[in-house]
Design a protein that fits this description.
This protein has 315 residues and is of the alpha/beta class. It is built from nine helices and 14 strands. The protein starts with 8 loop residues before the first helix and ends in an 8-residue tail after the last strand.
Length: 315
């Protein structure tokens, strides 16, 4: 192993520049796509599709949404999303490797012709400084890329910045069962193969929570490989952006948790016992009325005695 210095962004970029020009089969994890999702995509795209999952397939994408894919590479996830989002939506692919961007852009006309519309925009940029405006996207996806960053805190903060309130991320990445030793962390080849830069699942969840995300879920988890006694897993996580208002108003609303557990705690440390009314503020009403909480609570307006919801205007 090469372990004489820290791995840098330039090391990662060089690794994937080469992978764009000469496909590396060892970087491709088995991913099953439905024929419906990929019928419009040229076969050449798959040879440079490097990932550890298919976050777009389970992101619950709806027509007309705006999605950004971070570390978009050859564009596979962007092209799948383009079909799901439709002509009224928009897909933005962000990548720091110019060779990958050129490859993706080269497929662009074929994809647009096959779909009958054009809704994909590829941009050069870094995960730590995403070239997208604040509060712009409904969905952020990323497929085995965040582990390549040396500043993962910054990446999650950027994801939070560009998402709209109520927006969500769906991220597939590699995590480890324990922290890797320094000699592995400094190996450029293993870093490029999504091993050296991986953090533990606990740390990955912490990064998302500390950035301000709510309702963080592990949607999928599969064993990937073992390297020098450390087990690595492919996980897909989902989290939501909910902003807290400058002041949280109590205006006579209560939440009733419907089950199936006897009680639950949310990320603001509220406890909800099954079937019991808990007074909640406007921020919490807004949050519990939306995914991933919607359907698990009744929101009761004691003024009218009816079930109620609260939109951004009352928060």
């Amino acid at each position: 192993m090469e372990n004489n210095r820290e791995v840098t962004r330039d090391d990662v970029r060089s690794f994937y520049s080469a992978a764009a020009l000469a496909p590396k089969k060892e970087l491709c994890c088995p991913v099953t796509y439905t024929p419906e999702d990929i019928s419009h995509i040229p076969e050449e795209v798959f040879s440079i599709s490097y990932g550890c999952g298919s976050p777009v397939a389970i992101a619950g994408i709806m027509e007309g949404e705006i999605m950004a894919d971070l570390g978009s590479g050859g564009g596979i996830d962007c092209f799948i999303a383009a079909k799901k989002i439709g002509p009224s939506g928009k897909v933005i692919g962000v990548d720091m490797t110019e060779e990958m961007l050129e490859k993706a852009k080269g497929f662009f006309n074929t994809i647009a012709t096959n779909l009958g519309y054009s809704n994909v925009d590829f941009r050069y940029g870094f995960l730590e400084d995403i070239p997208i405006d604040d509060n712009f996207t409904d969905i952020i996806t990323s497929n085995c890329v965040i582990n390549l960053s040396t500043d993962k805190d910054a990446v999650f903060k950027e994801i939070y910045r560009v998402l709209k309130t109520g927006g969500r991320f769906v991220i597939s990445d590699i995590v480890s069962d324990k922290e890797a030793p320094e000699e592995i962390k400094r190996d450029k080849e293993l870093w490029g193969e999504c091993i050296s830069g991986s953090v533990t699942q606990e740390e990955f969840l912490r990064l998302a929570k500390d950035a301000g995300f709510y309702g963080i879920e592990i949607l999928k988890r599969d064993f990937y490989k073992e390297v020098e006694g450390i087990k690595f897993y492919s996980v897909t996580l989902r989290g939501f952006k909910f902003r807290k208002g400058k002041r949280c108003l109590y205006i006579g609303h209560y939440a009733v948790y419907l089950g199936p557990f006897s009680s639950v705690h949310d990320d603001d440390n509220h406890e909800f016992k099954r079937g019991e009314m808990v007074e909640v503020c406007t921020d919490t009403i807004f949050k519990l009325s939306r995914l991933p909480y919607a359907g698990k609570f009744l929101i009761i307006d004691t003024e009218s005695g009816s079930e109620a919801t609260c939109g951004p205007s009352c928060c």
